[in-house]
Structures are given as C-alpha cells and as structure tokens.
Design a protein that fits this description.
Strand content: 5-15%
CATH architecture: 3-Layer(aba) Sandwich
CATH class: Alpha Beta
Helix content: 40-55%
Number of helices: 7
Shape: globular
CATH superfamily: NAD(P)-binding Rossmann-like Domain
Number of domains: 1
Length: 217
C-alpha cells in the first residue's frame, strides 16, 4: 500500500486494520508521479511480499475551478501524472509479476469519464484516459492470463469532497443521482472485491459503475 508522506497516520491505521483481520500489510511512503518513484515501490513490493495477485491503481488528485483559465498548468500536470502516469508505470513494471500468479489489475476511474463536470476539466479527462487504458490493457495482457478491469465510482462521500470542492457544491452532493443520495466508500469496496475474486474469472476489459444509477457508457 502506497501513501503520501503526509498520510502516514492514515496508513498506520490501515495497516493496523489489516493486521487485526489476520492479514499482512506494508505501507510505503511514495509520490507515484514519476517512473523512478514507481520503480522504488516495485522493488520494495518484491522485497517485502511473496508474489502479487492483485494490483489496485487508485492514486488520484483533483482540484476544482469554475473557468478554464483558472486551471493552473502545474495542477493539470500533477493531475495527469498522479492519475494516469502512475497507473501506466505500475502496470508496466508489475505485469511480469502478475503474469506469474494469473493476477488482476483494478483501476479506479470515475463517472466523470462519461459525464464530465466543467469544474473538473483535468480530472475528468484523466478518468476518460484511464477507461481507454483499461480496455487496451485487457487486450494486451489477456493472453498473459491477466484480467484488467475498472471501478467507476459516482458521487462518493470521502474527505476529498469537502477538501477540494466549493461549499456550495458540497451541499447536496450526490442528490442528482437516480437513487437520490451520495454513496459511501464501503459501497465501492464491494465492487473491487468482486472483480478481484474468482467470481469474476471471465470478466476483463470492463468498467463496473458504482454511481447511484448514473450511466457509465
């Protein structure tokens, strides 16, 4: 499990929860925006863990702005590096490990890939890129016995929402879904568990939407 250095407390809590459930977890402080950082994570993974069955590419960054001209160049570069480049490098470097285990790649995309909001121009574009990447990777890695899928959350209540959105957008967040409410992280987790399991052994190259009824096509 990777985390930014400033997220160390959250990482320790996650490791403790995994160990309390009888598992083993290794937390690695890393900023995945560069290929060099990804290589360090891969080396640590191979050193600390025995084999790799599932790779979850979940790192993401977003900030909102009301107009195109307000998007700072450094933010756009950070958003693409975090959301797209990190996923690409991780899969590239760990494909051989996943091939040995007949493993699974899971990528977090978003309903924003299909219904982009204008205040999330760069973020939505990265999620569309990831959706395309998942389809291509499924074709590329399928013959090597690796399944590749994505989970596309809709409006989900996480700390990211109040931290990155204007107060007027936070109020009523998720109320425009057909189910009429915001989703919770645990409702997204079940989608990842399914796609990682043998129950999804013939599922690859697909996007599973957890969107409260918003379409992902």
């Amino acid at each position: 499990m990777t985390h930014l250095p400033e997220e160390a407390d959250d990482a320790r809590e996650t490791v403790a929860a995994v160990e309390a459930a009888g598992g083993r977890a290794v937390a690695v402080a890393a900023d995945l925006r560069t290929h060099e950082a990804v290589l360090e994570v891969v080396e640590r993974t191979r050193r600390e863990l025995v084999g790799l069955d599932v790779l979850v590419a979940n790192a993401a960054y977003q900030m909102t702005h009301d107009a195109l001209e307000e998007f700072p160049p450094e933010q756009v570069e950070r958003t693409f590096a975090t959301n797209v480049f990190a996923t690409f490098w991780l899969v590239r470097e760990l494909a051989a490990d996943l091939e040995e285990s007949g493993g699974v790649v899971l990528v977090t995309t978003s309903v924003q890939a299909y219904q982009p909001a204008d205040h999330l121009l760069d973020y939505a574009a990265t999620k569309a890129a990831l959706t395309n990447l998942v389809v291509n990777l499924a074709q590329e890695l399928g013959p090597r016995g690796i399944r590749v899928n994505a989970v596309a959350p809709g409006p989900i209540w996480t700390p990211l929402i109040p931290a990155t959105m204007a107060a007027e957008k936070v109020e009523g967040f998720g109320s425009d879904t057909p189910l009429g409410r915001v989703g919770q992280p645990v409702e997204v987790a079940a989608a990842f568990v399914f796609l990682a399991s043998d129950e999804a052994s013939y599922v690859s190259g697909t996007v599973l939407g957890v969107t409260g009824g918003k379409p992902v096509f």
